[in-house]
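Most newcomers find our protein records easier to grasp once they have seen one. To make this concrete, we reproduce a full record directly below:

…
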Amino acid sequence: MLVPRAPAARAADDDPWLGVDKAKHFGVSTGLGAGAYAGLWLLGSRDTPLLRLALAAGLALMPGLAKEIYDAGQPRNRFSGKDMLYNAVGVTVGALLFYVIERLVSPRRAPVAARANH
């Protein structure tokens, strides 16, 4: 005899932690995070690298958030916190990647005190 599962148990199975959907959220968000940071950097943003990192992450999260809000309004769909977590991790990885690249290729500036002595 089959025992029906509770609605909460069925809903959990509809949104597994691992799978193709989560890989897509991570991959697209990684590209968005990298692109946002690279864009701010290459456009000559005068912000500090850490502020640029925060701005890039915020900008890059917007499409993922918009998609989840859209999904929440669709029949037989909902907002997925798991998808948003993968979006956030992907955005962070992408933005950090370009933050590290910037740190490696940008000329190092001497501390202000050292420049004042010359």
Observations:
- Residues 33 and 60 are 5 Å apart (CA to CA).
- The chain has a mean pLDDT of 85.
- Residues 81-105 form the longest helix (25 residues).
